[in-house]
């Protein structure tokens, strides 16, 4: 009887402890979700009122005049595209070395360590680095400098995802191809890459999502071009060797201004970036789900 009563008391105490832990966990989740939805609700409420045709067809205006964010949108797209085209091949090749050739070598361990540092490094440090090695050397801000800074943010994400996805490819596939006489590079290019393709694309999409809203690196590299244009081609610059408008910096400058029309455009630009990043993350999760089903 004593043993039975003791076991019942222990069971009751464990149930009560579990209930309290679950209650605290649910409370923390609700608290976090509340602020998340509050932020998103405020963004969508203020952002939708700023979304119109002009925001896509007119350039950043002077205070008190009509305008949009066309030059900032196109500038962001251009620098993001170049950064992705530069950073993705480097990241894939580095990830391939780590997963297929380096494995447990000393060099591979050093690369992984440096890559982990780059993954966690504040983006403003990357911006300062590019400012010192590039902007100060050429003597001016430019779209190329902004693209270079963003590419440094793309590389570590692609390296990590490429290595992880290639490590998930069964060794038996490589051994079967090698048994048929396929050279190592063909095994990697036609077997490992094909099996890990969706996961590697997911890593690229996540890297693009990360750099899409980065402001700090661009403040030190591409900066912005002049405000005050009323038409599509006024104050328009497609020269990558000159300061280039971009959405994050335009939002930063407009949000801090005392002008209501600029603040309205800042809300609209923030909504555009948020929706773009959300779409990229949904696409990345969809590809990740396909990869897991394939495995």
Automatic annotation (TrEMBL):
**SUPFAM superfamilies (alphabetical):** MetI-like (SSF161098)
Checking Pfam families in the record gives: BPD_transp_1
How does the UniProt record describe the way this protein sits in the membrane?
Answer: Multi-pass membrane protein
**PROSITE patterns the record matches:** ABC_TM1
Name all ABC transmembrane type-1 domain ranges.
Answer: 73-284
Top-level taxon of origin:
Bacteria
TM ranges are 21-48, 68-92, 113-135, 141-159, 265-284
Q: What Gene3D superfamilies would the database entry show?
A: MetI-like
Listed GO molecular functions? phosphate transmembrane transporter activity
UniProt keyword terms in alphabetical order: Cell membrane, Membrane, Phosphate transport, Transmembrane, Transmembrane helix, Transport
| Compartments where found | Cell inner membrane; Cell membrane
What are the GO BP annotations of this UniProt entry?
Answer: phosphate ion transmembrane transport
Q: Signal as a keyword?
A: no
> What coarse category fits the chief subcellular location reported for this protein?
membrane
Q: Name one GO cellular component term.
A: plasma membrane
Q: Which InterPro entries match?
A: MetI-like, MetI-like_sf, Phosphate_PstA, Phosphate_transprt_permease
Record family assignment? Belongs to the binding-protein-dependent transport system permease family. CysTW subfamily.
The name on file for this protein is Phosphate transport system permease protein PstA
């Amino acid at each position: 009887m004593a043993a039975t009563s003791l076991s019942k008391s222990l069971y009751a105490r464990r149930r009560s402890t579990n209930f309290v832990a679950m209650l605290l966990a649910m409370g923390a989740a609700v608290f976090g979700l509340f602020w998340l939805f509050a932020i998103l609700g405020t963004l969508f409420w203020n952002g939708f009122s700023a979304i119109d045709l002009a925001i896509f067809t007119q350039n950043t205006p002077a205070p008190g005049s009509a305008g949009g964010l066309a030059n900032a949108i196109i500038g962001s797209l251009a620098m993001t595209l170049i950064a992705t085209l530069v950073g993705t091949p480097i990241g894939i090749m580095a990830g391939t070395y780590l997963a297929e050739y380096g494995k447990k070598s000393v060099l591979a361990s050093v690369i992984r360590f440096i890559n982990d540092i780059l993954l966690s490094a504040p983006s403003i440090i990357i911006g300062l680095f590019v400012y010192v090695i590039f902007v100060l050397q050429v003597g001016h801000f430019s779209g190329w400098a902004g693209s270079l800074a963003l590419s440094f943010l793309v590389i570590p994400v692609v390296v990590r995802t490429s290595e992880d996805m290639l490590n998930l490819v069964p060794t038996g596939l490589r051994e079967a191809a090698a048994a048929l006489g396929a050279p190592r590079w063909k095994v990697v290019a036609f077997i490992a890459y094909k099996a890990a393709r969706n996961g590697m694309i997911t890593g690229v999409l996540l890297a693009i999502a990360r750099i899409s809203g980065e402001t700090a690196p661009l403040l030190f590299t591409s900066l912005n071009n002049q405000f005050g244009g009323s038409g599509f081609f006024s104050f328009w610059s497609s020269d990558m060797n000159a300061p280039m408008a971009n959405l994050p910096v335009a939002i930063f400058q407009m949000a801090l201004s005392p002008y209501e029309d600029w603040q309205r455009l800042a809300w609209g630009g923030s909504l555009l970036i948020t929706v773009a990043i959300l779409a990229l993350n949904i696409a990345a999760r969809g590809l990740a789900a396909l990869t897991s089903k394939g495995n």
